[in-house]
């Protein structure tokens, strides 16, 4: 394979690149057309009346995009809000925030929904599929309720993996080794093998990957100030994919698939405020793991006049993590109950002193376990594509059934509490305040069980008035049944409690659009569509501990539930390839949004609740441009603008009209370029650079929240190297100028912490196919 291979010295490589003295390029500078599955069928991107960004496998590799957070920086009007842990991101498209309640952004792995219900009380967000054997990622902006259901009112993210090849044996492999500033070495290894078992009839595709990202945050003792751990926030990931395809008869395809992913981490990617960059001083290490398993069975049968598709899936996710509850457990007891800092009389210890500080210093670990299982079936029938003759109609219709169940357990301890408290205050005071020793040192525990069943009918019809003019109309009817059970115990729960609630909700989400092809390479469209998000009951908030917090918000008690919300999206767009070497896609939108669901933390008592906070509107636009003036040079740029604000005040919460909706930056933009030059018939050199800009935003609705103001930031990446036939070898850097800003300030158990960017990382990589 490598016969005749000779590494060109760097000086000679750049001389060739700069002077053009090497082998002449024979490649075309045409930009290939892009096929998407946004409307449940394969179509040219230009024919779909939706604003869509497509990030292909080449871009993922060239810009070293490894997760959803990276994706938000290259896709217009796409953003995230993180709790600092892997899998904790809430995603926003066009300013439609998802900090509470069901997700506003649907997540799909091929045709399987893996959307998590991002309830603020669970401290989990959307799953992040490892980008193993991914062909492309489609980001659909605007509500997709007609074809994708209730949890897609902001948009949909589709991770499309490579299909099984039934005729050719082959595969891909990649490896990288890097180092992170203020951290240590990282590595990533992946491989995929495709094997036809019976030529043209049966095949198998196997993939696996493992990666390690060293930490860059150090832990210090809050008592002595000395370092007690280095690089504590390391991450390990293991991934496997199995895809099988059988075509036993003409027109029938059977595809069982399995995706497995496990992420484990030593600590969250957050820092303590005021300590300087990359430092924490919490008393409890906040590590965890997140495991996702997605088995599915897809059966497709081409009946000639229509194609029948069945997709059955059984998605599960198991997330476990520990967080530091010292601030609202040990500190609250020491400061409020013992030292009287919250209005009650202080309690002197056995020697007549105030010793609350000794209780405050006891570590208070909190163990959270979240498990979710979602069994779903989609059955749909789609017509063939219209080819300019015959009946000028295309359509898709189907049913969708899903049974989703989840359980969240939160058990919080105070280490050595009984012994320490008794030695300071005696058993009588322990009994008078806490009713006796804490069982197993547990100060609070809670179990939430949630079940949701959805039944949907959907359809979409397109009429070609002429070959250039198309009208489309679609709708989805959804009905949902929810049940919620809560049990709790412990001192901060006010003793044993249990309650249950149920709800029934339904919605119809229509969409209408018109598309006109000005030329064969340019089309314009206009779309109006409705999005919908289900409501749900709230977890119990004990008023005996949270009365002060609630009073600060003008409330006597937390609401028992929050209702559904809906929005209307109106957009106009143009998609064009004015020349073979250039493409441009642009859209403008206006969204009217009612009954926003938002989460509010109660900082003193440590609880939270969700509620509806009035109405909002969001407007803006997005632009994507790619040009390839020669076969050697490719340039691309994107830009997005979103202005999302509340249109009516929420007086009881102190929120004014015009308050920005949380999470979404006004501006984001990116640019990338690649220059490549053949050096020999089999060897080429390349130079790449990319730039990402994320504008300022607001992470909360309340001005008093530490996360209210989020700064703008820039990221730069670069790489250079050579390609030899089907293999690429390179040197790369991410966060090249080592941007160190704290970009978000999430709340960790009543304490604001800083979420930072990964420091500058420089590495070498190799990838190719065989």
Could you give a quick summary of the protein structure above?
By secondary structure, the chain is mostly beta strands. It is built from 8 helices and 42 strands.
Written overview of the protein:
With 770 residues, the protein is mainly beta. It has one domain (10-329, 364-769): TonB-dependent receptor, beta-barrel domain (Maltoporin, Chain A, Beta Barrel), CATH 2.40.170.20. The chain contains 8 helices and 42 strands. The strands form 8 sheets. It has a 22-stranded antiparallel barrel. The longest helix has 18 residues, at 417-434. It is globular, with a radius of gyration of 28 Å. The chain starts with 9 loop residues before the first helix and ends with a strand.
Key words describing this protein structure:
mainly beta; 8 helices; Maltoporin, Chain A; five-stranded mixed sheet; globular; single chain; 22-stranded antiparallel beta barrel
Termini separation comes to 10 Å
Name the structural class: mainly beta
Provide the CATH superfamily: TonB-dependent receptor, beta-barrel domain
Radius of gyration: 28 Å
Shape: globular
SSE map:
Blueprint: H1 10-19, E1 35-36, E2 43-44, E3 51-56, H2 57-62, H3 68-72, E4 78-81, E5 90-93, E6 105-109, E7 112-113, E8 134-141, H4 145-148, E9 155-161, E10 170-180, E11 185-198, E12 202-213, E13 218-220, E14 227-229, E15 235-246, E16 252-265, E17 270-272, E18 279-280, E19 288-302, E20 307-324, H5 330-338, H6 356-360, E21 365-382, E22 393-413, H7 417-434, E23 442-464, E24 469-489, E25 497-519, E26 522-533, E27 536-537, H8 543-552, E28 561-562, E29 565-579, E30 582-594, E31 597-601, E32 608-612, E33 615-630, E34 633-646, E35 667-678, E36 683-694, E37 713-724, E38 727-734, E39 742-744, E40 747-748, E41 751-756, E42 761-769
Parallel strand pairs: 6-9, 13-18
Antiparallel strand pairs: 1-2, 3-8, 4-5, 6-7, 8-9, 10-11, 10-42, 11-12, 12-15, 13-14, 15-16, 16-19, 17-41, 19-20, 20-21, 21-22, 22-23, 23-24, 24-25, 25-26, 26-29, 27-28, 29-30, 30-33, 31-32, 33-34, 34-35, 35-36, 36-37, 37-38, 38-42, 39-41, 40-41
């Amino acid at each position: 394979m490598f016969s005749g291979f000779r590494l060109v010295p760097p000086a000679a490589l750049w001389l060739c690149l700069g002077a053009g003295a090497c082998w002449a390029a024979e490649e075309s500078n045409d930009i290939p057309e892009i096929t998407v599955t946004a409307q449940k069928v394969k179509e040219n991107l230009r024919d779909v009346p939706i604003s869509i960004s497509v990030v292909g496998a080449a871009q993922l590799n060239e810009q070293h995009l490894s997760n959803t957070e990276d994706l938000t920086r290259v896709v217009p009007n796409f953003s995230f809000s993180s709790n600092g842990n892997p899998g904790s991101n809430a995603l926003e498209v066009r300013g439609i925030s998802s900090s509470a309640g069901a997700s506003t952004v649907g997540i799909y792995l091929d045709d399987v929904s893996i959307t998590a219900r991002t309830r603020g009380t669970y401290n989990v967000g959307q799953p992040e599929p490892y980008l193993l054997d991914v062909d492309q990622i489609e980001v659909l902006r605007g509500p997709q309720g007609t074809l994708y259901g209730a949890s897609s009112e902001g948009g949909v993210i589709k991770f499309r993996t490579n299909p099984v090849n039934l005729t050719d044996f082959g595969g891909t492999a990649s490896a990288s080794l890097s180092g992170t500033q203020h951290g240590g070495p990282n590595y990533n290894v992946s491989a995929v093998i495709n094997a036809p078992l019976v030529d043209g009839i049966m095949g198998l595709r196997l993939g696996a990957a493992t990666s390690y990202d060293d930490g860059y945050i150090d832990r210090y003792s809050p008592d002595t100030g000395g370092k007690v751990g280095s690089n504590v926030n390391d991450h390990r990931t293991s991934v496997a994919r199995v895809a099988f395809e059988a075509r036993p008869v003409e027109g029938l395809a059977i595809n069982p698939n399995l995706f497995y992913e496990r992420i484990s981490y030593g600590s969250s990617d957050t820092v303590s405020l005021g300590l300087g960059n990359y430092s924490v001083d919490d008393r409890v290490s906040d590590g965890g793991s997140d495991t996702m398993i997605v088995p599915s069975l897809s059966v497709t049968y081409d009946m000639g006049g229509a194609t029948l598709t069945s997709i059955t899936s059984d998605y599960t996710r198991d997330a476990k993590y520990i967080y530091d509850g010292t601030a609202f457990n040990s500190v609250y007891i020491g400061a409020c109950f013992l030292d009287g800092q919250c209005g009650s009389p202080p309690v002197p210890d056995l020697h007549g002193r105030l010793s609350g500080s000794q209780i405050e210093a006891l570590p208070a670990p909190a163990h959270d376990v979240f498990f979710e299982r979602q069994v779903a079936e989609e059955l749909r029938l789609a017509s063939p594509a219209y080819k300019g003759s015959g009946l000028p109609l295309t359509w898709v219709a189907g049913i969708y059934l899903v049974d989703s169940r989840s359980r969240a357990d939160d058990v919080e301890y105070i280490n050595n509490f009984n012994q320490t408290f008794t030695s300071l205050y005696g058993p009588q005071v322990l009994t008078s305040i806490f009713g006796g020793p804490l069982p197993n040192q547990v100060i609070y525990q809670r179990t939430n069980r949630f079940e949701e069943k959805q039944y949907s009918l959907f359809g979409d019809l397109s009429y070609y008035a002429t070959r250039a003019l198309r009208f489309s109309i679609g709708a989805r009817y959804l009905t949902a049944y929810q049940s919620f059970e809560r049990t709790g115990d412990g001192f901060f729960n006010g003793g044993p409690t249990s309650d249950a609630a149920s709800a029934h909700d339904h919605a119809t989400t229509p969409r209408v659009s018109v598309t006109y092809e000005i030329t064969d390479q340019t089309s314009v469209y206009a779309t109006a569509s409705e999005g919908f998000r289900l409501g749900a009951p709230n977890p119990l908030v004990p008023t005996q501990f949270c009365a002060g917090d609630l009073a600060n918000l003008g409330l006597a008690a937390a609401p028992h539930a929050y209702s559904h919300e809906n929005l209307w999206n109106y957009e106009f767009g143009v998609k064009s390839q004015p020349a073979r070497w250039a493409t441009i896609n642009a859209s403008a939108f206006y969204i009217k949004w009612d009954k926003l669901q938002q989460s509010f933390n109660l900082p003193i008592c440590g609880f939270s609740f969700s509620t509806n906070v009035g109405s909002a509107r969001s407007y803006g636009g997005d632009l994507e441009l790619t040009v390839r003036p020669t076969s050697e040079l490719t340039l691309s740029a994107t830009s997005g603008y979103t202005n999302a604000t509340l249109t009516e005040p929420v007086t009881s919460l102190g929120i004014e009209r015009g308050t920005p909706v949380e999470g979404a930056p006004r501006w984001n933009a990116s640019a990338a370029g690649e220059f490549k030059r053949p050096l020999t018939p089999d060897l080429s050199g390349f130079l790449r650079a990319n730039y990402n800009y994320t504008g300022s935003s607001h992470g909360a609705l309340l001005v008093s929240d530490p996360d209210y103001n989020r700064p703008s930031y820039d990221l730069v990446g670069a790489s250079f190297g050579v390609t030899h036939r089907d293999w690429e070898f390179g040197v790369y850097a991410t966060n090249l100028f080592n941007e160190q800003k704290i970009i978000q300030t999430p709340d960790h158990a009543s304490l604001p912490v800083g979420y930072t960017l990964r420091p500058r990382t420089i590495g070498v990589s190799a990838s190719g196919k065989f």
